[in-house]
Amino acid sequence: MPQAQALQRLQQHASYGVRLSEQTATRVAELLANVDQQPHSYQSLRVIESLLVMADDAQAQRLSVAPYVMTALTSNSDTHKKIQLAKQYVEQHYAQAIKITDLCHQLHLSESSAYRLFEKHYGMSFSEHLKQFRIGKACELLASSALPIALIAERTGFGNLSNFNRQFKTLKTMTPREFRQRFQAVSG
Fold first, then answer.
1. CA-closest candidate to residue 89, choices 108, 70, 65
2. What domains can be seen in the chain, in order of their start residue?
3. If DSSP codes are grouped into helix, strand and coil, which group holds residue 46?
4. What residues have CB less than 8 Å from 73, skipping those under 6 apart?
5. How far apart are CA 148 and CA 41, in angstroms?
């Protein structure tokens, strides 16, 4: 069934984030407008139709080169507590130079245990997670402010503008300037 294959491709691409074409985004918005006021069976049909429209969008673009992966944890596990502490530490210190040893000291873990924790929970290394978090914060600032790109790089923990530009382009497949221009074009 070709529709099932298209939906499977959409699901795989969704873990990277997907930017739909303007035409598809408009069509999906039309399909889902006021859907919550319809009978349940009609709502289900509209959602399925919307998914099929998104799956058929040949102009859809991935937003990231790395997929977002997160494993489920029970909220009372020791691992969950460590992940929460690590998350808080990154959120509070991302603008500074952070080393895995700093995090290990906070979590009372060995480096190898910290590496395993990040690989298992996030599906990536600590440094990759930190880079993606910083780039995400940079995207927020690019979209919500007129701050110079060099200042955004500094505020998000990148001490070197060319390194920031290179890391940003690798992760987002566009430069920070292009990201800002596209975001302003869509929201403006």
1. 108
2. 2-62 (no CATH), 65-188 (1.10.10.60)
3. helix
4. 79, 80, 83, 121
5. 50
User: Which residue carries 């959120």 as its tokens?
Assistant: 91
Q: Which residue has the tokens 């303007």?
A: 22
Q: What is the DSSP string of 40-79?
A: HHHHHHHHHHHHHHHHT-TT-EES-SS--------TTSHH
Question: pLDDT truncated to tens, each residue of the chain (188 aa)?
Answer: 666 777 787 787 777 788 888 998 898 888 888 888 888 878 888 888 888 888 888 888 877 766 765 555 556 678 888 988 999 999 999 999 999 999 999 999 999 999 999 888 888 899 999 999 999 999 999 988 999 999 999 999 999 999 999 999 998 889 999 999 887 766 55
Cβ-Cβ contacts under 8 Å for 50 (sequence gap 6 or more): 28, 31, 32
Residues 112 and 172: beta-carbon distance below 8 Å: no
